[in-house]
Amino acid sequence: MENSTCFVNLLASQGCVELDSSEPLCFNSQCSDESTVKERKKWTPKEDIILIGAWLNTSKDPIVGNEQKAGKFWQRIVQYYNCSPQLVGTIPRELGQCKQRWARINDLVCKFSGCYEMALREQRSGQNDNDVMKAALDIFYNDHGSKFNLEHAWRELRHDVKWCSTYLEKESGREKRKAVASDAQGSFAEPEERPIGVKAAKAGSKKKKGGKEEELEKIEGLLALKKQISRQNVLESLLAKTEPLDDMELALKMKLMSEMMYGHCLSPLQKCTAAIRMLAYGCTADATDEYLRLGESTTLSCLTNFTESVIQLFGEEYLRRPTTEDLQRLLDIGEIRGFPGMVGSIDCMHWEWKNCPTAWKGQYTRTLNDINVFDRSPIFDDILQGRAPRVQYVVNGHQYDMAYYLTDGIYPKWSTFIQSISLPQGPKAELFAKVQESTRKDVERAFGVLQSRFAIVKNPAILWDKKQIGMVMRTCIILHNMVVENERNGYTQYDTSEFEEGTSTRSSNVDAPNTSEMPPNLANMLLIRTHLRDRQLHERLKNDLVENIWNKFGNDEDE
């Protein structure tokens, strides 16, 4: 009896159903689920800008910064976003929505920043910012197959440290342009300076010296000048003597001469030794005091002057682009190793910045991987502009006209990149994977040798200035190239004399670039980019290399 009552109540809860009605039947459970489905709300440019501001203000917090868990970090961003007075009356956004939207903005803006920097390098005389922007949009569409619709987000982020262009800092000719004030459309701004430190803030807050202190400093300066003049007179009298000097006078003469030449008895040998010790051993600046009697500030000054001098004197020779002769030598070595047309290997080495400010950590942590670094690299600019030497080589009976690099699997499948085979099937694929991976290890060995010679690039960077860190890295590379040039003939394992003497016919040749056939417009440049990133050409070249490796080294494997 109780069961029948339950069934009656269940039927009554469904309500009355009209069988003659044309409307579809709807039960209570189904109707309640359909009513709870929310419509997807699109993001407006105003909401994007507010989200960007929330992320920047939260990541640049000088007190907390990114030293917190991801959940707490995004909770602060969502709270900042929903509390904005510009969003009064709108439905608050949830954490997942803000996180997904920021991931899309960050991804597309990073990609467009590389396209804009490429267009900025191609800017010709007479072109304005609108022309550069149009070229960047065309490059983005050609590379990714879709239009860039987050221009408002890019203009909001373009002057931040992570997304700002580094091209203006490299070109010295650009420095002559006057800085233009930032307007609504967005213009070039100075790179963000390092936040002021605690000691500098305290020193700046001190009061200026009074009149008595200034007079005392003037008197001390006059006394020091008088002392220097008296020493000069004593040295002149010792030099004017015609009689032989005794031991006391000779020691005094040498001391005065060293002070006059080097000042405070610091010789150039001491200064260079201090800088080289920091580069070679990666020690701190105050660690040289025991051996060289130099203070911390003096050692840092010596390091700065040493790096600037090395780059100025030897940078043009040891950081230059490869010449036609260099390319021919690299192609000959690549042909001997079974890779005709190969000019080397590409990889990325990361250098940790120990003293990175808290306000900047969120912009450098886990964001600049191999692909992002490659997108900002100008390695293919000469090819796009027609300034690179022309390369022609034959692989397995097919002719190609663009050199390539050996890379790992993270790089895209372009005609200029050849990766290994992750799961080789068959003896040919296995042999190719073995030879490619062993040959590609050259670049990793080069990084290992560089870090073993200069421990400063192996350990986390202890310097405070980004410019100084870059100068240290370039100086280490220049000194490394000097050592390689001096010792190259002693450990080179590949003899290219057979090509030079004409006893063997090389399949790779390099011709000087023809400057009269440079790409005249953007359309030709985009055509070259399409050829450079051709996936079908990549697959055909890779298959030909597999056959070439098998024909060259297959018999050795059988034995």
TrEMBL record:
UniProt xrefs under InterPro entries: Harbinger_derived_prot, SANT/Myb
Pfam families: Plant_tran
Myb-like domain segment(s): 35-106
Region (Disordered): 175-211, 497-519
Biased composition (Polar residues): 497-518
Top-rank lineage group of the source organism: Eukaryota
Name of the protein: Myb-like domain-containing protein
Organism of provenance: Brassica oleracea var. oleracea
Organism ancestry: Eukaryota, Viridiplantae, Streptophyta, Embryophyta, Tracheophyta
